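Chapter summary example.
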Amino acid sequence: MKLSLTLVALFVASLAIGQTNSDLYQATNTDIYSRASGAGLRTDIKEQTYSITITVTDIRNTEGVIRFKFYDDTTPFPHDFGFLRVVIPKTELTGDSLIVTYSGFTSKNMAIALLDDENDDWKLDMGWFLPKEGHAFSDYYHTALRKPVYKDFRFLLTGDKKVVMKMKYY
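The structure predicted for these 170 residues follows.
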């Protein structure tokens, strides 16, 4: 399961940063995160890297995919792309939950948003003013009638981190 998640993450990250298929198999997770961040990191300096373990709960069905977007201060939410996008097929679910771990992140302010894209159309489908599909944010359960903002679910990554994301459906 971990290998398949890594391959999906590598493929999606390569699309986000414009790598070719041949580059994809030569790159490591650290390479992809560094290039995807757009932070202009020097490649000759090895920074301490950390992992993030994400637990997603209350997923209502097995249709479609889960789409994660990672944000930082240079690409804050609701930026269309964030600095990294990852797609997980719902075949990876255990009951109504999903646990994934990603590594290679450097210390910085970050936020994670996800979409339960039930019809796999790459967008949050809307009904009468409210989303039809589920969404969640890093360690934050949105209850207000306004759209969430980056500071609502931002965290400072200074070590390995566990994040819980509870799905919200209307």
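To summarize the output: The domain at 47-166 is CATH 2.60.40 (Immunoglobulin-like).
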